[in-house]
Specification:
This protein is an all-alpha fold and 223 residues long. It has one domain. 72% of the residues lie in helices and 0% in strands. It contains 11 helices and no strands. Helix 1 packs antiparallel against helix 3, helix 4 runs antiparallel to helix 7 and helix 8 packs across helix 10.
């Protein structure tokens, strides 16, 4: 896999992760807004009920379909990308990073490059495989509780499927944990590719959702 192929393939999975995260947290913020103040906020939403119902359904449909694409097997699933990535640790060598930085700076010898390379992380194949394996819990949760909903309710319509039974086993926290595992990989690969930095955000560090929540709340507050 060449650098250009890596960038193109990474952008596909990164955009999907961000799109699913945006859809989910926008949905959650609209719901939170409507339930915070029954007399005022609920009335604001309810006066244009058909519009907001459509928005909520579209957002829910969006994150289910996108997560289905991320976990495969159709489209370009994340596990396929990660398998390809782990086979090419040379993409993350200090030499490759230096060349990218020279090209970005349009300078054959940027004054800051030596310090950056001195601190840069060169992951081994095993360390890249650790990153790839980190999505295994999210994959298992998706396949057990959420793939059936995606397949039988959103992507297709199974007349024999019980919506109550399918949704009865779901938890908001599980979707949040799935999205966290995905964003943790996205951020780790971003930092590794751009700066040679080893970054692994903690379980409670979910600041990547702040822009989505902030934009949704800003719009809702202007209603």
């Amino acid at each position: 896999m060449t650098e250009d192929e890596y960038k193109r393939r990474y952008k596909i999975v990164s955009d999907d992760i961000l799109s699913a995260t945006r859809a989910f947290y926008t949905y959650m913020e609209i719901n939170k807004f409507a339930t915070e103040n029954q007399q005022q906020n609920y009335q604001k939403v309810n006066q244009d009920g058909h519009f907001w119902s459509g928005q909520m359904y579209s957002l829910q449909l969006g994150w289910f379909i996108i997560l289905g694409r991320i976990f495969g097997p159709s489209g370009y699933p994340l596990h396929k990308f990660l398998k390809q990535m782990t086979a090419h640790p040379e993409l993350f060598s200090k030499e490759a990073l230096a060349q990218r930085k020279r090209e970005d700076a349009r300078d054959p010898n940027p004054p800051w490059l030596a310090n950056l390379l001195e601190e840069a992380w060169e992951p081994t194949t095993n360390e890249l495989e650790d990153i790839a394996r980190s999505i295994n819990p999210a994959t298992a949760t998706w396949k057990k509780s959420y793939k059936p909903i995606r397949d039988k309710i959103f992507a297709h319509r199974d007349l024999a499927a019980s919506i109550t039974d399918l949704f009865g086993a779901t938890l908001v926290a599980e979707i949040e944990d799935i999205l966290h595992d995905l964003n943790r990989v996205r951020i780790a690969l971003d930092q590794l590719w751009l700066n040679g930095r080893r970054q692994w955000i903690g379980d409670t560090d979910r600041t990547y959702v702040d822009p989505f929540i902030g934009d949704a709340r800003g719009l809702l507050n202007r209603l």
